[in-house]
Every structure is written in structure tokens, then in C-alpha cells.
Amino acid sequence: MVIKQSSSKQVDALVADLQSDRAVARETAAARLAVIGARAVGRVAMVARDRSNSMAARVAALGVLEAIEDPHAADIVLPLANDTDPDVARAAIRALRPLLRGPHGVRALECLTTVALDATRADEARVTAVQVMSELDPKTVKPLLDRLREDPHPAIAALASGATSGGRQRSSKAAPASSGPAAPPFEDSLPEDPEPLRHQLSRDGATASLPALHRIVEHVREREAQDPARRSAWMTARAAAHLALATRGSRLALYDLREALESTREPLPVEFLAALKEIGDVSCLEAIAAAYAHAPAETDWWRSHLLDAFRAIVVRERTTQRHATAKKIAKRWPGAYTELWG
Predict the structure, then answer these.
(1) How far apart are CA 273 and CA 270, in angstroms?
(2) Which pLDDT does position 130 carry in this prediction?
(3) Could you please report the per-residue DSSP string of 29-66?
(4) CA-CA distance, 157 to 259, in Å (whole number)?
(5) What pLDDT, on the 0 to 100 scale, is given for residue 170?
(6) Smallest Cα–Cα separation from 123: which of 99, 151, 147, 144?
(7) CA torsion angle for 135, 80, 43, 211 (degrees, to 10)?
(8) From the first residue on, what is the mean pLDDT of each consecutive set of 10 residues in the chain (342 residues)?
(9) What residues have CB less than 8 Å from 104, skipping those under 6 apart?
(10) Which pLDDT does position 48 carry in this prediction?
(11) Can you tell me the distance from the alpha carbon of 212 to that of 25, in angstroms, rounded to the nearest whole number?
(12) Cβ contacts of residue 120 below 8 Å, gap of 6+?
């Protein structure tokens, strides 16, 4: 395919933003590159592979490759599952998920198996590998999961036990690595009512493609504005889409999570906070603090979830009280700052 000059320049600009030290610029670029798709794979892969780039840029690039689901990314993603940076390695392991359904399925499964069984690897990497494998048909990975049920790491043993006992019922919908590609949900049309969409997301969100989930977020946000009578129901459906993305470790729509929190003066569906707790970064802390400071006194559950999300991000991102964001929060909302930081 011949790429027009204007398209090439657009990809160049977005790739530059993908390497930015500003989280908002990275997230926006990642979302747009995922929509561009296969045309951007080569340039995005270069960002992921280049160890001179920041960890955040490389992780964002791998998230884009996971979302695009192009089999040509296999030769980049597979080696990065063993990267020396643990965050990059985990992002690469997550990016193996779409490869399981294509011509590189056997290689991807072999890589995941190696990581899951390697007791010298970081626990987080092993857990991520087991989570990805657990989405396959249980018959495909049953021998491995049976072995991992006896693993000394409690989280790995629990994941393996849940998958082999049918605890992850939705996993049976995924195709085995050796079979042809499964037909992912949400690729054709979306329900016109928010409640069926929410139920479908709960059932099939784990096997939907990341671009499809991102499109749902954008589609539902528009419906919230067009259908004010059912705005609350549509928002709950959007929250379910965010949780499906977060469960997959994808920050593709993190910008929308943050904007939802910044624009609200009332509690959001709890799935928004659950997603923030999973994938939120430092750029979300100010929005969480503002929501906490403005929360009505009678919404203890909302404040409690905001507190949990805030502290989870602080720990994951290794944010100290010397960070510029922390100082800004302390200045604007001193009371909330004291409670949030504990």
C-alpha cells in the first residue's frame, strides 16, 4: 500500500508525541495511532524497541501494537517479553494477546509458557503471562495450568486454579492458539440500548479487540450527549468498556477516564474508579483529588473508592510528596491532600 505524504507526516507527528514526557500527549497519540492501524506499525515498533526511549514511551508503543493487532509486530513484541525493564516486559507480554489468534499463535504461546514457568522472572511478569494464557480455551493450556496450580506464588496459583475450574467462564470463548482466528465481538454493530451493551461488555469484554473497546468508549460518550434521558445508563455502559480495557492493562482510553473525573461533580459508576485503580498514572492524581475534595459528605463509598484509586496509583507510579503534582494538590486542596496521602 502506498502511503500518502500527508498520512506519513501525520504518523511522524504522532510518533513524536508518543515519545513525549507528557502523559496526555502520549495517550492521545496512542489512541490515534491505534485507529490508523497497520500503516503505523513500523514506526511504533521502532519506539518500542529503542532502549534509549523512556519506559513510558516504550510501554505506550507496545499498547498501540496490542491494539492494532497486526501479526507483523510479532518479531518486535516477542523478544521484548524478556526486556530488562519489567514494565516494558509486562507490556510486551500483554501485546502477545492478539498474536495468539493468528499465524504466530504457537510462538506466542511458547513465549508465555516460558515466562509463566520461569521462577527467576519477576512475579508481576509471570502473573501477566498467566492472565493472558487464561483467556485461551482451557483445553489448550490445561496441562500448564494444572502445573501452575501448585506454584508457590499465591497469585499465580489462584489464577491457574480459577482458569482450570471454570472461574473465568468467558475464557472459553477465545480461540486456541493453534486454531484459526476467532470472530471478535463488537466488530459489526453495537446494541442501540445501553443495558444490553453493558451486559455484553461484561460477558465479552475480555475477548473484544482493543480498538473495538476504544470505539465503544467514543460511541457511548456521544450517546450520553444525544440521549439525556438515558445518560446515566449510557455512562454505566461506558464505565464497563473502560473496565474491560483496564483489565487488559490498556491505557488506550485513559484520557477519557481522566476527563470524566475532571468534569463530574457527582459520583460516577464505580467501574470508572476500578479502571483508574488498575491503569491510572500520575496525570490522574489531580483529577482524583479534585473529585475527593468536592465529594458530597453523604457519599462515603465514592470517597472511599477515590482514596483507594489515588493510593494505588501513588504506589504503582512510585510518586512521592516531593513530586510537582503532589505539591500542587497540597496547595489547592490541603484537607483532601492530608487524607489522601494518609
Answers:
(1) 5
(2) 86
(3) HHHHHHHHGGGGHHHHHHHHH-TTS-HHHHHHHHHHHH
(4) 37
(5) 40
(6) 151
(7) 10
(8) 58 92 85 88 94 93 91 93 92 91 89 90 87 78 83 79 53 40 59 86 80 87 90 92 87 89 89 91 93 87 92 91 93 94 84
(9) 71, 74, 78
(10) 95
(11) 22
(12) none
Whole-number pLDDT of residue 142: 81
Q: At what angle do helices 194-204 and 231-247 cross, to 10 degrees?
A: 10
Name the grid cell of 135. 483467556
What's residue 107's pLDDT? 92
- Residues with Cβ within 8 Å of 191's Cβ and at least 6 positions away in sequence, in order, are 197, 200
Q: For residues 261 and 302, is the Cβ–Cβ distance under 8 A?
A: no
Question: CA–CA separation, 320 vs 315, rounded Å?
Answer: 9
Interior/surface letters 141-180, b for 16+ CB within 10 angstroms, e for the rest: beebbeebbebeeeebebbbbbbbeeebeebeebbbbeee
pLDDT at 135: 75
Cα separation, 95 vs 73, in Å, equals: 9
Amino acid identity of 155?
A
The angle formed by the CA atoms of residues 74, 275 and 283, to the nearest 5 degrees, is: 90
C-alpha to C-alpha distance for 70 and 98, rounded to whole angstroms: 8
* φ, ψ dihedrals at 82, nearest 5°: -110, 20
- What whole-number distance in Å separates Cα of residue 11 and Cα of residue 6? 9
Judge contact between 247 and 205, C-beta under 8 A.
yes
Tell me which residue of 102, 91, 32 sits closest to 66, measured CA to CA: 91
How close are the terminal C-alpha atoms of the chain, in Å? Answer: 56
Burial code of 215-242, b = ≥16 C-beta within 10 A, e = fewer? bbbebbbebbeeeeebeebbbbbbbbbb
Consecutive H or E run containing 13: helix 5-18
Q: How far is CA 144 from CA 112, 129, 141, in A?
A: 11, 12, 5
Do 251 and 281 form a contact (C-beta atoms < 8 A)?
A: yes
* Integer Cα distance of 291 and 266 in angstroms: 8
